[in-house]
Amino acid sequence: MNELNFLSEAELADACAALRRGEVIGLPTETVYGLAGDAANADAVRRIFATKGRPADHPLIVHLADATQLPDWASDVPEAAQRLAAAFWPGPLTMILKRAPGVLDLVTGGQDTVGLRVPNHPVALALLNAFGGGLAAPSANRFGHVSPTTAQHVRDEFGEAVPVVLDGGPCKVGIESTIVDLSGDIPRILRPGQIGADAIAQVLGQPIATGAQQASPRVSGSLASHYAPDTPAERVPTERLDTMIRQAHGSGESVRVLALRHLPNGVHGLVMPNDPEQYARHFYAALRSLDAEGAERLLIELPPDEPRWLALHDRISRATVAPSDDDAP
Ligand code: TXA
Ligand code: MG
Questions:
Q1: How far away, in angstroms, is 69 Cα from ligand 1 center?
Q2: Which ligand is nearest to the CA of 99?
Q3: Which of 34, 117, 156, 224 is most exposed, with minimal Cβ within 10 Å?
Q4: pLDDT of 117-176, one tens digit each?
Q5: Which atom belonging to ligand 1 lies closest to the Cα atom of 36?
């Protein structure tokens, strides 16, 4: 073991060699595990899409060792990008910038922009520094499935199709990076994450737009059903939870509940931390473990309707459908 406490020098060298051969590997980051390949190698990028089963028009995020590599990937690095990099990198923030001429169409989905981020995880940073180039890495889950936050989740997703998975422990952030688009007139949040719009606006000293611009297919997380467990999952306001559980039990359905404060008596499920950062850290693992129990329905209690829970409302929405009687009086 080296000072990383996670992987040996030999493992690091092997992973680097695999990347240079154009292979894809499971890579820990602070947000979720990625399925990483050489972003400058078209075969490697094709392999990422094929392994995930992801449509080719969904662009990938390129991971870098540090912000000095930005000009290799972006043709224009505005001052806003420099400031955000200084404030938040390494960290859970992806910036969308105008792409440099050499960046593969496969990586950008044919767009004139590219997503870039420096992850805050010792294993990812060690590998990026050893590798030298950019690593394209979407979340290491099959397309549309729940994101992975442990090495075992990645093995569960892909098995032998991804033989090398670096184990960097459970992800500390637990949900995907905030995506901010700096390629337009005003900065815009395309995907909420742990770093909130307020924090970004404060660093930039200017207001930023939130909410997707129309229904953009460019952010795959913007598809209605994303990050979804196999068990049909519904989001339920706290005040309706007991009724929903009673109804399900009454009709003989097996249910699992992802609850916030407590689990009602006789109900199977998990109680989540009542703090957004702690909740996020455990969210995907909790979804996966309840999903594995094979119940007929999964009920997710909605967190408070407060800005600090925004990213989790987003992820819960994508993992669920609204309750069938959502529009009842
Ligand atoms: O936290 C994360 O961002 C994780 C870890 C592994 O770094 N990665 C991740 O990748 O969530 P992925 O591929 O699952 O989601 C990346 C999102 C996609 O929804 C993609 O459409 C969007 O970023 N994206 C990438 N490049 C873009 C671009 N040029 N313009 C707009 N959206 C872009
Ligand atoms: Mg993903």
A1: 18
A2: 1
A3: 224
A4: 999 999 999 999 999 999 999 999 999 899 999 999 999 999 999 999 999 999 999 999
A5: 6
Going from the C-alpha of 287 to that of each of 90, 162, 170, 258, 291, the distances in angstroms are 27, 22, 15, 8, 6
Which residue among 63, 97, 139, 227 has the greatest number of ligand 1 atoms within 8 angstroms of its CB, and so is best to mutate? 139
Return the bridge partners of 117, or none: 63
Of residues 138, 96, 139, 136, the one with CA closest to residue 115: 96
Which tokens go with 102? Answer: 């050499």
Residue 124 Cβ inside 6 Å of ligand 1? The answer reads no
Which structural domains are found in the chain, ordered by start? Answer: 9-210 (3.90.870.10), 233-327 (3.40.50.11030)
For the entire predicted model, the pTM comes to: 0.94
Higher pLDDT, 141 or 217: 141
269 in ligand 1 pocket by Cβ < 6 Å?
no
Amino acid of residue 254 = S
Q: Is 108 in the pocket of ligand 1 (CB under 6 A)?
A: yes
Q: Give the tens place of pLDDT for each residue, 260-313.
A: 988 988 899 999 999 999 999 999 999 999 999 999 999 999 999 999 999 999
Amino acid at 176: E
- The mean pLDDT of 7-11, rounded to a whole number, is 90
The H-assigned helical ranges of the chain are 9-20, 42-52, 70-73, 79-88, 105-108, 122-131, 151-158, 197-204, 238-250, 276-291, 310-319
34 lines ligand 1 (CB under 6 A): yes
Query: Ligand 1 pocket, 221 CB below 6 A?
Result: yes
3-state class of 67 per DSSP?
Answer: helix
Can you tell me the distance from the alpha carbon of 204 to that of 200, in angstroms, rounded to the nearest whole number? 6
Ligand number nearest CA of 184 is: 1
